[in-house]
Each structure stands twice: as structure tokens, then as C-alpha cells.
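Weekly puzzle thread! Below is a chain. First person to post its structure in C-alpha cell form gets bragging rights.
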Amino acid sequence: MAGPVLEDVLAPELIKLDVEVENWQEAVRQAGQLLIDHNHVEPRYVDAMVRMVEENGPYIVIDQGVAMPHARPEDGVKSLGLSLLRLSNPVNFGHDKNDPVKLVICLSSVDAEMHLNALRQLASILSDNENKQILLTGGKEAILEKVQEVSQI
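Winning reply:
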């Protein structure tokens, strides 16, 4: 599959661990701020991610404890990026099965395809319980090692 690999998209400066938040909206905004800070999105993209959940429900909670907020490219995406925010205390998004959420992984993509290779590699981490535990409890170095490993596949 063509397209950037996970380590090209999820840079070390886009990972923030053990962050305190009050609710899901703050979690999305903090994860989105990482994308703003590194010039992947405009601030209005973060507002659009929050609005998408308010309007469409918690469909972004894609796995037990994992949410992947995103919005449309036209909502202010400048470039492809992923941010990973790990919460100190999980928060509820209102999902029946996968709450509470501890990992908030925000996606910014300029189109419907460019991100697919990196997401496939991220999915391979999340689908393996041992690897998922690295994201949930490991340090940044361990997370980056796993990201680098799956980027070779």
C-alpha cells in the first residue's frame, strides 16, 4: 500500500502522555492542539472535530479505550498528521462498549486516501493486545520503537 508510513505521520512531538482532562471535549481539544502546534491543521479543525462528535455521536471511539477524532479536509487541514494523547484518567465519550477512553489519536488528512497506509500500521498495533499495552502504559521511547517497527511492515 502506498502512502506515508506511521513513523512519518506520528512524530515524537505529536505524542503527549499522561495528560489530565476534565471531559472528552477537552481531550479532543488537547490532542488537536498538538496538530495545530505543528502546523498540520488550522484551529477551526479542532472545533470541527468536537462538532462531529456532538452531531454524530461517539462513532470515533474505534476500540476499547481508543478514540480517533477527525473532521473533513476542508475543515482546515494543512497536511497529513496524527497526534496521540494518553490520558491520566480515562474519560467517557458516551460509547456503549468502548468507554472509557484513555488514548485519543487525532487524524488530519488532506484527502480520503493518503493516510490509509499509516492507519493500517496503527491498526496493527491496536489489534495486538501486547502492542496496545505499550500505547496504554509505555514510555514515549517504547511507543516510538513500536511505531518504527510497524512502519517497516
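Puzzle host: Confirmed. Bonus trivia for everyone else. The first strand starts at residue 15 and ends at 19.
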